[in-house]
């Protein structure tokens, strides 16, 4: 997988590069500010971009702005955001167009190399990987009709889907059989109007629709 890493702290940036390369991924560029990020994404067209939120020149939300600009220029670009903070508005914007993988991890809640690599690979493949705290923040922003159509259990399940868990993993978390989870997910797809024949794509579309509706409230 070809990856652009955008992180302003040298030691962390170098560490991310070494970690990704240790798992046989190719880091095509490692940059430290917004403009360099935009240039790297335009030049290299990576499979996924791993982007910090607070970067030069303003050290506020430059990384997220770069991610959004890059996705407008190249719809479907997969982006994994790394942050110490939950920027709710921008998280919703990243989810809004429903194209390309999206991830949002909090730096102080990534405890294992495998956890991070799995998130990168899932997002690069077009899936989602959202920290539970990010999911909770978006869901607490409000409620609209698509959310009201889901039962409490269905809301639990789709929140776990947003974290990137499989049906089997969700079943283990909720102490339910994989068959039961499959029935719940089918109900979720129906209520959200997701009709794709591709089950993996249906999961992504359901998560994006759900989180987009939750953040719009």
TrEMBL record:
<protein>
    <submittedName>
        <fullName>DNA-binding response regulator</fullName>
    </submittedName>
</protein>
<dbReference type="Pfam" id="PF00072">
    <property type="entry name" value="Response_reg"/>
</dbReference>
<dbReference type="InterPro" id="IPR000792">
    <property type="entry name" value="Tscrpt_reg_LuxR_C"/>
</dbReference>
<feature type="domain" description="HTH luxR-type">
    <location>
        <begin position="143"/>
        <end position="213"/>
    </location>
</feature>
<dbReference type="InterPro" id="IPR016032">
    <property type="entry name" value="Sig_transdc_resp-reg_C-effctor"/>
</dbReference>
<dbReference type="InterPro" id="IPR011006">
    <property type="entry name" value="CheY-like_superfamily"/>
</dbReference>
<dbReference type="Pfam" id="PF00196">
    <property type="entry name" value="GerE"/>
</dbReference>
<dbReference type="InterPro" id="IPR001789">
    <property type="entry name" value="Sig_transdc_resp-reg_receiver"/>
</dbReference>
<dbReference type="InterPro" id="IPR039420">
    <property type="entry name" value="WalR-like"/>
</dbReference>
<feature type="domain" description="Response regulatory">
    <location>
        <begin position="2"/>
        <end position="122"/>
    </location>
</feature>
<keyword id="KW-0597">Phosphoprotein</keyword>
<keyword id="KW-0804">Transcription</keyword>
<keyword id="KW-0805">Transcription regulation</keyword>
<dbReference type="GO" id="GO:0003677">
    <property type="term" value="F:DNA binding"/>
</dbReference>
<keyword id="KW-0238">DNA-binding</keyword>
<feature type="modified residue" description="4-aspartylphosphate">
    <location>
        <position position="52"/>
    </location>
</feature>
<dbReference type="InterPro" id="IPR058245">
    <property type="entry name" value="NreC/VraR/RcsB-like_REC"/>
</dbReference>
């Amino acid at each position: 997988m070809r990856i652009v890493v955008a992180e302003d702290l040298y030691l962390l940036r170098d560490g991310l590069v070494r970690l990704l390369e240790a798992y046989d991924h190719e880091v095509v560029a490692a940059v430290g500010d917004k403009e360099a990020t935009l240039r790297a994404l335009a030049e290299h067209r990576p499979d996924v971009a791993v982007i910090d939120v607070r970067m030069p020149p303003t050290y506020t939300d430059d990384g997220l702005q770069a991610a959004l600009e890059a996705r407008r220029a190249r719809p479907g670009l997969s982006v994994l955001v790394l942050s110490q903070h939950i920027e709710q508005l921008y998280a919703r914007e990243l989810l809004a167009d429903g194209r390309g993988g999206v991830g949002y991890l909090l730096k102080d809640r990534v405890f294992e190399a495998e956890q991070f690599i799995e998130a990168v690979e899932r997002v690069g493949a077009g899936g989602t990987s959202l920290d539970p705290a990010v999911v909770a923040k978006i869901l607490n922003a409000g409620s609209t009709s698509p959310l009201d159509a889901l039962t409490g259990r269905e809301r639990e399940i789709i929140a776990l889907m947003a974290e990137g868990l499989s049906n089997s993993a969700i079943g283990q978390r909720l102490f339910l059989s994989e068959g039961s989870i499959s029935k719940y997910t089918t109900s979720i797809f129906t209520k959200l109007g997701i009709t794709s024949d591709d089950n993996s794509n249906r999961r992504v579309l359901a998560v994006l629709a759900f989180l987009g509706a939750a953040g719009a409230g």
